[in-house]
From TrEMBL:
Pfam families: Fer2, Fer2_2
Gene Ontology molecular function: 2 iron, 2 sulfur cluster binding; metal ion binding; oxidoreductase activity
PANTHER family, per the entry: BLR6218 PROTEIN, OXIDOREDUCTASE WITH IRON-SULFUR SUBUNIT
Protein name per Swiss-Prot or TrEMBL: (2Fe-2S)-binding protein
Transmembrane regions: none
InterPro entries: 2Fe-2S-bd (IPR002888), 2Fe-2S-bd_dom_sf (IPR036884), 2Fe-2S_ferredoxin-like_sf (IPR036010), 2Fe-2S_ferredoxin-type (IPR001041), 2Fe2S_fd_BS (IPR006058), Beta-grasp_dom_sf (IPR012675), Diverse_Oxidoreductases (IPR051452)
Species name: Paracoccus onubensis
Residue ranges annotated for the 2Fe-2S ferredoxin-type domain, each copy included: 1-76
Amino acid sequence: MVEFSVNGTKHSFDGDPETPLLWYLRDLAGMPGTKFGCGLGLCGACTVHLDGVATRSCQTWVSDLDGVEVTTIEGLSEDGNHPVQVAWRELNVAQCGYCQPGQIMQAASLLSETPDPSDEDINASMSGNICRCGTYPRIRAAIKLAAE
Ligand code: FES
């Protein structure tokens, strides 16, 4: 039996030990905010925080989460007013929006570790989060705005 928390709520799991966290969240926990893109750890759409660190949930087994605090886009803030979310709205970052929960979770993790990131810091942190709509300039601007 694995026990962990998701957005502050306790969860326990004793199913298939190779169940990816992404599918646990979406199919078993009823939290569809975390998106499936590639399933291979290559696109960032499934990014969540494990103990505050941005992590690809498609490559994380639930059986490895004992004692871990998981945060998803649904739990990043109570009211959608995390500074990153505010900046995202202010600059209308999203186009189709599909990758944006992962982008926001990656950006929030970056800013918690590096509150005033350089362009190089942003590129290094965000380069694994793919956006088919090409919203990268607005993502970078929103991270700078959130850092102010
Ligand atoms: Fe996990 Fe693409 S779905 S990195």
